[in-house]
Design brief:
Elements (H helix, E strand, L loop, with lengths): L2 E7 L4 E7 L5 E7 L15 E2 L1 H19 L6 E8 L5 E3 L9 E2 L7 H11 L1 H8 L7 H11 L1 H6 L2 E3 L1 H10 L3 E2 L1 H6 L3 E2 L4 E2 L1 H7 L8 E2 L3 E6 L2 H7 L6 E7 H8 L7 E6 L3 E7 L11 E4 L10 E7 L3 H10 L7 H8 L10 E3 L17 E3 L8 H25 L6 E5 L7 H11 L2 E6 L2 H12 L6 H4 L4 E6 L6 H17 L1
Parallel strand pairs: 1-5, 5-14, 9-12, 15-21, 21-22
Antiparallel strand pairs: 1-2, 2-3, 4-7, 6-8, 10-11, 13-14, 15-16, 16-18, 17-18, 19-20, 22-23
């Protein structure tokens, strides 16, 4: 048997998948640790993790998969890596990390990004970087430079979490162009590192890792990497991408107009642009997608919505009858008409929403009529409100020039709900395609493309299990009327 190994390095756990080359199906999957990895907050707004924890848990997950599949080290033909985006890892010349990693949800660098935005000017940032420097990797590095000068002086290379895992496997310090775009280092007009941004922060280019292709040989497992992981020395590492681009790739979202969406605790909509574009209000972020090139631009537009599945979970705990399951909640909600007879739920109760200009509106329930509204109305209005928030974000994407025709999603979380799916499809006018996949499987398939087992993503995902399609109905009037009422209620809260 021959396998491809996919790794998905998250902030909660590290997942590994072994994909059978012959069948294209997962032969084994596992994740470690079984309890969430620790996130340290030494001060309010900080979030740090020990990079060694990622590596230790990666080794354990890989070992478990090897045992479950009965695989030998030499059976693995290539390794692919997906990872939590926007983190910062610093290593010295001996390739030892110098401090805990500053991860994606750490907000300490916001003032540094804002200052760079003012120094460089909004026109330069939006037309060249396609984003504000914000709280991304470059701004995090600037914080270290200013607040921990001794650490900064010892830094040989800075890298993203996936770059660190690749370094531990191969002994080489490398990154990718999409990875650098996550940190807001790329000037899209030149296709190179932004000298203006580097100068504004006072960074030396020598701190940049070498750039390797997203798909292709990025390094080989070293003797030390083999000894510590049980993998075979010389095995190629041939794919690397941040978790959201990789999630989209895992759904074969590669073409302009295609959308990948997730609806877990928070929600993400990730769409593909075929030409550089930006939102003037920076309500979404733009990064190089996994198949981006200068000749054929493919930019991933990332919309994050904090208040999605967490609202549905809150409804289950506080509104639904005790012990009611999510499918039972869906059935109860389906007993009332579209629009919940005027009841509206604004779902933004999980912090500031970037799509609203970083305003924390809080969640709201409005239009309550004590004579007609029941728990069923509240449950339906909650799911409709979440779907409407997705649609509202997609309007920003359309204003950027994206022609949204298809939404691809994993058959999980909110996409298990018929009400949510139909509301989203009808309101946006886009067809929803549901699949069975995850990030570690996508990373394994990416590794297969990187070594030529698959000629392209269509071949790699030919075995992607399709769970169904949600097509917008011919008459969308009821849903559009409810959406209009929702937007009126939202305007009153912002």
């Amino acid at each position: 048997m021959h396998y491809l190994l996919g790794l998905d390095v998250g902030s909660s756990s590290v997942k590994a998948s072994l994909v059978n080359v012959e069948t294209g199906r997962a032969a084994a999957q596992d994740f470690m640790p079984k309890r969430e990895m620790a996130i340290t907050a030494r001060r309010a707004g900080w979030a740090e993790q020990n990079p060694e924890d990622w590596f230790v848990n990666m080794k354990a997950a890989v070992a478990s998969c090897m045992t479950l599949a009965g695989a030998k080290a030499e059976d693995i033909k290539a390794v692919g890596i997906s990872y939590q985006m926007h983190g910062l890892v610093l290593v010295d010349k001996a390739l030892n990390h110098l401090r805990p990693a500053i991860i994606w949800c750490d907000s300490r660098a916001v003032p540094y990004g804002n200052k760079a935005f003012e120094t460089l000017g909004s026109e330069y940032c939006l037309t060249h970087l396609l984003n504000s420097p914000g709280n991304f990797t470059a701004a995090k590095l600037a914080w270290v430079k200013d607040n921990e000068p001794d650490i900064y002086a010892k830094t040989y290379k800075f890298m993203l979490p996936g770059d660190y895992i690749a370094m531990r496997l191969t002994g080489e310090t490398t990154t990718t162009l999409p990875g650098l775009s996550e940190g807001i280092f790329i000037d899209y007009q030149t296709g190179d590192i932004s000298s203006e941004l580097m100068n504004a922060f006072g960074f030396d280019r020598s701190m940049l890792p070498d750039v390797v292709p997203t798909f292709g040989l990025q390094g080989r497992i070293s003797k030390e990497g083999a000894a510590t992981t049980g993998l075979a020395a010389g095995t190629p590492v041939s794919y690397r991408a941040g978790d959201q681009p990789n999630n989209a790739f895992s759904l074969n979202v590669m073409k302009p107009g295609e959308i990948a969406a997730t609806g877990g605790t928070s929600g993400v909509v990730y769409g593909i642009l075929g030409a550089p574009g930006y939102d003037k209000l920076s309500r979404v972020n733009v990064f190089a997608h996994v198949n981006h090139s200068a000749n054929a631009p493919r930019l991933g537009v990332l919309l994050c919505i904090n208040g999605t599945g967490i609202l549905n979970a809150w409804m289950r705990r506080t509104v639904a009858p005790e012990g009611m399951s999510y499918p039972e909640m869906n059935e109860l909600a389906s007993t009332v008409p579209v629009g919940a007879e005027g009841l509206v739920v604004i779902p933004f109760g999980n912090g500031a929403e970037r799509m609203l200009g970083n305003v924390n509106t809080g969640a709201a329930i409005s239009g309550i009529n004590f004579n007609i509204h029941t728990k069923a109305h509240v449950l339906r209005a909650a799911q409709e409100g979440i779907a409407f928030s997705f649609a509202c974000g997609m309007e920003i994407m359309r204003d950027m020039g994206m022609d949204i025709t298809t939404i691809k999603a994993g058959y999980a979380n909110l996409f298990l709900s018929p009400i949510f799916r139909k509301t989203l499809a009808t309101t946006t006018g886009a067809t929803i395609e549901l699949y069975d996949t995850d990030g570690s499987i996508g990373a394994a398939k990416g590794a297969g493309i990187g070594i030529g087992i698959y000629p392209d993503s269509d071949s790699a995902f030919a075995t992607l299990a399709h769970h169904g399609t949600e097509t917008p109905p011919d008459d969308a009037s009821e849903y559009l009327s409810a959406y209009a009422a929702w937007k009126v209620a939202l305007a009153k809260t912002t």
